[in-house]
Structures are given as structure tokens and as C-alpha cells.
Amino acid sequence: MDLSVCPRSYLITLFLFLFHSETESFPFVKMSSKRQAYRIWDIYQKTFYLRNNQLVAGYLQGSNTNLEEKIDLVSIEPDSVLLGIHDGRLGLACVKTGGTPKLQLEAVNITDLDKNQQESKRFTFIKSENDSICRFESAACPGWFLCTQTESDRPVGLSNTQANTITRFYFQRE
Ligand SMILES: *[C@@H]1O[C@H](CO)[C@@H](O)[C@H](O)[C@H]1NC(C)=O
Ligand SMILES: *[C@@H]1O[C@H](CO)[C@@H](O)[C@H](O)[C@H]1NC(C)=O
């Protein structure tokens, strides 16, 4: 029996293992570079804009229509997305303060985020679509959806109820 066969087969196994794990991680890394801008408006036609560094939804008119914020989206999985504004430099995060989930803008680069799933979880939303209408459920706070208020010029937030809030949006690629 040739003794050199054994180490060589080890090497081949190791090589195949390394090759396998690299090909597995490749699609994930590749997806992280995609960022796309979308227009968003709720089913009552309210668009998003910033007021005192807070995201609010209202009816922008005249020259104010320039203030409309587009949503930047990075796909992690087909229905799992990271959301941000300002070219993805401000992320939409779900943060629990005093037990209640709140929507918060954080200065991060969402295009960089999805390499570390734990860090990106609060920025992750499960996007579902039905009849061109989208809903965005927080991955960190299940049951809580991105929402606007029925009144205009009120903060964009998170809601776990359909009452008095709007959780349905039109969402269209720029
Ligand atoms: C965000 O991250 C991406 C990917 O690393 C990079 O290409 C881009 O320049 C970054 N954007 C900013 C504003 O830093
Ligand atoms: C999709 O919307 C239609 C009405 O527009 C509704 O009848 C149907 O139940 C909805 N489907 C889901 C899965 O929510």
C-alpha cells in the first residue's frame, strides 16, 4: 500500500471543503452591493419627507415636492430588505425603547450592513406585496409594520395594529 495516498486525499478533501464554502458565501457577498432607490407613498397618497431630522408623511405641494424622500433598498433575501434614505446613509431601524418598538433613523451605510446579520437585524424588514400594495414588517420586532398616521405631517413609525395607522404603501422603483 502506498502511504502517500493518505495525505493527498486529505488535501483534496480540504481543498474541496474550502472551495465549497467559498462558493456558498459568494451569492451573499454579491447581493450586498445592490442598492436601489424607490418612491414610496401610503395608500392615501402621503409621501415621506424630513422635518427636524424626523421622517414624516404628508401631502407635499408646489416647490415642497422636492423635499420628498426616496427609500433606498438593499435586498438580503428576496423578501428581506434593508431600508434607508439619503443614498442609504441613514438606515430605518426598529429599536425597542421601554419595551415598545420605535422607528429610528441611524447614520449607517446600509450597503455595508448585510455582511453582519446580527448588526443588520434592526434595519431588516420583511417586504410583502399584494395587488401592488406593500407592507414592511420589522424583522427585529415581528408583528410591527412600517406605518404612517391618518393625519398628515405626522411621524412615520411602527404599528402592530391596523387601527388609526396606515401600513399599506405603494412602492415603485425609480
Ligand atoms: C457604502 O458602502 C458601499 C459598499 O461598501 C460603498 O461602495 C459606498 O461608497 C458607501 N457609501 C458611503 C456614502 O460611504
Ligand atoms: C390581496 O388583496 C385582495 C384584495 O385586493 C384580497 O382579496 C386578498 O385576500 C389579499 N391576499 C392576501 C394574501 O392578503
Residue stretches low in confidence (pLDDT < 50, at least 5 long) are: 9-32
CATH fold descriptor = Trefoil (Acidic Fibroblast Growth Factor, subunit A)
Total of DSSP H or I helical runs spanning 4+ residues: 3
Q: Looking at the structure, what is the overall shape? A: globular
Query: What is the N-to-C succession of helices and strands?
Result: HEEEEEEEHHEEEEEEE
Output the radius of gyration.
Answer: 21 Å
Write down the domain tally.
1
Task: Find the structural class using helix and strand composition.
Answer: alpha+beta
Distance between the termini: 67 Å
Percent of residues in helices comes to: 10-25%
Could you please describe the fold and organization of this structure?
By secondary structure, the protein is of the alpha+beta class. The chain has 3 helices and 14 strands. The protein has one domain (29-173): Trefoil (Acidic Fibroblast Growth Factor, subunit A) (Trefoil). The strands form 3 sheets. Strands 1, 4, 5, 6, 7, 8, 9 and 14 form an 8-stranded antiparallel beta sheet that branches. A 3-stranded antiparallel beta sheet has the order 2-3-11, with no helix packed on it. Strands 12-10-13 form a 3-stranded antiparallel beta sheet, with no helix packed on it. The longest helix is centred in the first third of the chain and has 27 residues, at 5-31. It is globular. The termini are far apart. The chain binds 2-acetamido-2-deoxy-beta-D-glucopyranose (2 copies). Residues 130-131 line the site of one 2-acetamido-2-deoxy-beta-D-glucopyranose (NAG). Pfam families: IL1 (PF00340). It is found in: Secreted. This is Interleukin-1.
